[in-house]
Design goal:
- With 302 residues, the chain is mostly helical.
- The chain folds into three domains: 3-105, Helix Hairpins; 141-219, Orthogonal Bundle (Helix Hairpins), CATH 1.10.287; 224-301.
- It contains 13 helices and no strands.
- It is 75% helix and 0% strand.
Length: 302
């Protein structure tokens, strides 16, 4: 099949996408914008697409998730095409490398090791294998290999996990909370005497400890903050809708009125949750009744 035929074949699959990207980057017949791009200029789009995948999952929009995963796959293909042009690596070598990694990291699935392990033991084995990989890559420091470009909260958690492996960690969550209280008090007491740079540093210290608290509580801080953002958006939209029904808007309102509507939004959410819990309880009771009836019928027939 020619490249043109493959590019226009709706069933061409991954080879079709690779051919499309190669054509887009062709210095003679390609797209001027795509030709001008490099790793650095495309990287922000890669990060953006990953977040859009997470957003679709958060909203459980599975139709949109399909499209967002395609956009993210395009980023992998884009970087691989640029790398192939530069003689660095190819899409096939990327796929081969990650496949080799998955096989090596799962000897209980693809090798001779027993699958009779707890999830905790598998996690220990996974970390041991990754440590060996870092050693092979000449990463000697405990924190080597934690990507600088990660979202700050995620990187903070990863740094703390690495340090905790060698014993540099608070043994009790209460000590983490005490540290947060201490950092907040220091920032509050000194904010009028500190420079903006010093305030930023102190605030960063407090966020770092908050990330540590999330780790101790087994909470994903990025997911928690996304959920808080969603909740804030939902409640503020309620304020806008209620004000619009009154012929007003946030710009025409005041804090007291909007705060009252905010509390009303919270009450509406609480009532909705209560109804949802009640519906689940009714459903559970119904299933229990059906199960008892089925068991009774089976007893009578035996």
């Amino acid at each position: 099949m020619t490249d043109d035929a493959l590019i226009h074949d709706p069933d061409g699959g991954l080879p079709r996408l690779l051919a499309i990207m190669a054509r887009l980057r062709d210095p003679v017949t390609g797209c001027p914008w795509d030709i001008e791009q490099d790793f650095a200029s495309i990287a922000p789009y890669t990060i953006e697409e990953a977040y859009e995948v997470a957003d679709a999952i958060e909203r459980q929009d599975w139709a949109e998730l399909e499209g967002e995963l395609g956009d993210l796959l395009l980023q992998v293909v884009y970087h691989s095409q640029m790398a192939q042009e530069a003689g660095l690596f190819s899409f096939d070598s990327v796929a081969r490398r990650v496949s080799d990694k998955m096989v090596a990291r799962h000897p209980h699935v693809f090798g001779a090791e027993s699958r009779d392990k707890s999830a905790a033991q598998q996690t220990v084995d996974w970390e041991r294998i990754k440590a060996a990989e870092r050693a092979a890559a000449a990463q000697k420091g405990v924190l080597d290999g934690v990507a600088v470009g990660l979202p700050a909260l995620l990187r903070a958690v990863k740094l703390q996990k690495r340090a905790a492996r060698v014993g540099f960690d608070w043994p009790d969550v209460g000590q983490v909370i005490d540290k947060i209280t201490e950092e907040a008090r220091e920032l509050t007491e000194a904010r009028d005497s500190l420079t903006q740079a010093e305030i930023t540093e102190e605030f960063g210290d407090m966020l770092f400890v908050m990330a540590n608290l999330a780790r101790h509580l087994d909470v994903d801080p990025e997911a928690a903050l996304r959920a808080a953002n969603t909740k804030f958006t939902r409640r503020f939209q309620y304020i806008e809708q209620e004000l619009a029904a009154r012929g007003s808007s946030p710009a025409q309102s005041d804090l007291a009125e909007m705060d009252g509507l905010w509390n009303a939004a919270k009450r509406v959410e609480k009532q909705g949750k209560a109804r949802s819990r009640g519906a689940r309880r009714q459903s559970d009771k119904f299933i229990q009744v059906l199960t008892r009836q089925k068991n009774s019928d089976l007893d009578k027939s035996s």
